[in-house]
Amino acid sequence: MDMRSNNHGGHGTGKVALVGAGPGDPELLTLRAARRIAEADAIVYDQLVGEAILDLAKPSARLIYAGKKAGNHALPQDEINELLVDLARRGLNVVRLKGGDPFIFGRGGEEMQRLVACGIACEVVPGVTAAAGMAACTGIPLTHRDHAQTVVFATGHLKENTVDLDWTALARPHQTVVIYMGLGALEIICRELITHGLPGSTPAAVVHAATTPRQRIVTSTLAMLSADVRAAALKTPSLIVVGTVVDLHPVLMGHPGHEAVEPA
Ligand SMILES: C[S@@+](CC[C@H](N)C(=O)[O-])C[C@H]1O[C@@H](n2cnc3c(N)ncnc32)[C@H](O)[C@@H]1O
Fold this sequence. Notes:
5-stranded mixed β-sheet; alpha/beta; elongated
């Protein structure tokens, strides 16, 4: 826990803003997010929130880390919920800062439920979700009239060593599938999508650290993606993208203006 000071905010119950920090590039923060961070007395932040974003905090703000570090576990969700309640009850103006958007695989809903149940004023500030940041920085549009009329965001988080997803729905044609937290289950995901009807030749990619200077992309096919990503040794945070929109990556990134959308 990094506490810059013990300075408390006002009197009475404070409030909590669940703020989306975006996918990594600090310039993708919204104006409202930047304002809430600058005004906060306490900021409870996750692993995927960049240092440059925390630099917007006032010097007296408490910075409380709630994410995972190598070899350590994250604070359990219940403890994070109670921490937010406790900070607000001390009269602090609290920001709960999360990677991407708080309501997309961010457990923002669970945190807000607890705050609402405790009668604490709560606001959500949306952020650019990782899939949108990735799309802009790789030239992979999530929808396109010639390729995909629907886009699906799914989590590939393993539960009891399996991924519990509606494979039939994910394997539909003319659709883009973006899978968050799926790297550990990449082989299972590709196999199930093929088993449920997508051709092994379907274009697919894994994008690591999208929008940051560490961004890397591996493009392949469903049949080969797992082996290609293993060879490239991509790690988390990464997104899996499946669909023919992946074929647009070399086309759109070959555009003379492409530097404008690549990470600084
Ligand atoms: C707990 S989820 C949080 C998602 C976040 N709320 C959002 O809207 O983007 C974390 C996962 O998001 C994905 N992710 C987040 N930032 C990313 C980035 N810059 N590049 C690629 N994947 C990212 C990875 O799959 C990572 O494991």
